[in-house]
Amino acid sequence: MATQKDFVKTALRVPPDLHRALHEAATEAERTFNAEILHRLRSTFKGKRKTSTTPEGQQS
Fold first, then answer.
1. Which helix (H) or strand (E) holds 22?
2. I need a labelling partner for 25 at 20 to 30 A (CA). Which of 5, 18, 37, 39 fits?
3. Is there a contact between 17 and 6 (Cβ–Cβ < 8 Å)?
4. Which of 10, 17, 16 is CA-nearest to residue 41?
């Protein structure tokens, strides 16, 4: 089971309409607000290929 050490706590500011939409989506999916955000963030990274970055921070 995951513990607090498995997570980094962060503050996130979002517009009220997006906050409301996330809460509604979480309720519909029977997830917590936090779980809904994690689900959506993780889905954006699925299937993405890793790219290397140069020292200047530019993708190569």
1. helix 16-28
2. 5
3. no
4. 10
